[in-house]
Amino acid sequence: MAHVPGVVAIFVNRNYREEGELFFYIREEADIFLLSYAEMILENHALKLNICYESIVANSTVSQEMSRMNRSFPQHIRLHRLKKSFENSPLPEADLLILTYETCREIAVNQSFFCSLPSLLVIRNKNV
User: Fold this and answer.
1) Residue 103: which pLDDT band, with cuts at 50, 70 and 90?
2) What angle do CA 27, 29, 35 make, to 5 degrees?
3) CB burial readout 46-83, b (16+ within 10 A) else e
4) Which H/E stretch holds residue 111?
5) pLDDT level of residue 56 (50, 70, 90 thresholds)
6) DSSP state of 69
7) What are the CB-based long-range contacts (under 8 Å, 24+) for 78-85?
8) 96 - beta bridge partners?
9) Order of strands, sheet of 8-12, starting from the edge strand that comes earlier in the sequence
10) Which pLDDT band, with edges at 50, 70 and 90, does 38 fall under?
11) Which long-range contacts (CB under 8 A, 24 or more apart) does 113-121 make?
């Protein structure tokens, strides 16, 4: 993935259902680009999205952008602030977890946790 100059996405299908719940995981400030994908989905589909974020981004540009999106789509976004690490937090039911390539690499170190996740859409930003 490091040699491709544009945005790259990998889909890991673990019995994904198209009408299922989507779950975006925002680990750090650099993950803000995922919110543009979330907004695009909300503008084009009447889906409900879960956006889960680490406490570290709670007082940042990411937080401001999530608040703006929540005001624009109040019936379609549920925000979840993690108080513990991602691996140790109860996660909402989701059929598709959307996360960055960098985050996925870190999570994959814990194989048992990684294998317990739902279908994945792993996105590497072109600016990385």
Assistant:
1) very high
2) 80
3) ebebbbbbbeebeeeebbebbeebeeebeebbeebebe
4) helix 111-116
5) confident
6) H
7) 78/48, 78/49, 78/50, 78/51, 79/51, 79/52, 79/53, 80/50, 80/51, 80/52, 80/53, 81/52, 81/53, 81/55, 82/52, 82/53, 82/54, 82/55, 83/55
8) 22, 119
9) 8-12, 119-124, 96-100, 22-26, 49-54, 77-82
10) very high
11) 113/87, 117/14, 118/14, 118/16, 118/23, 118/94, 119/11, 119/12, 119/13, 119/14, 119/15, 119/16, 119/95, 120/10, 120/11, 120/12, 120/14, 120/96, 121/9, 121/10, 121/11, 121/12, 121/96, 121/97
Of the candidates 69, 9, 11, the residue with the CA atom closest to the CA atom of residue 42: 69
Backbone angles phi, psi at 45, to 5 degrees: -145, 150
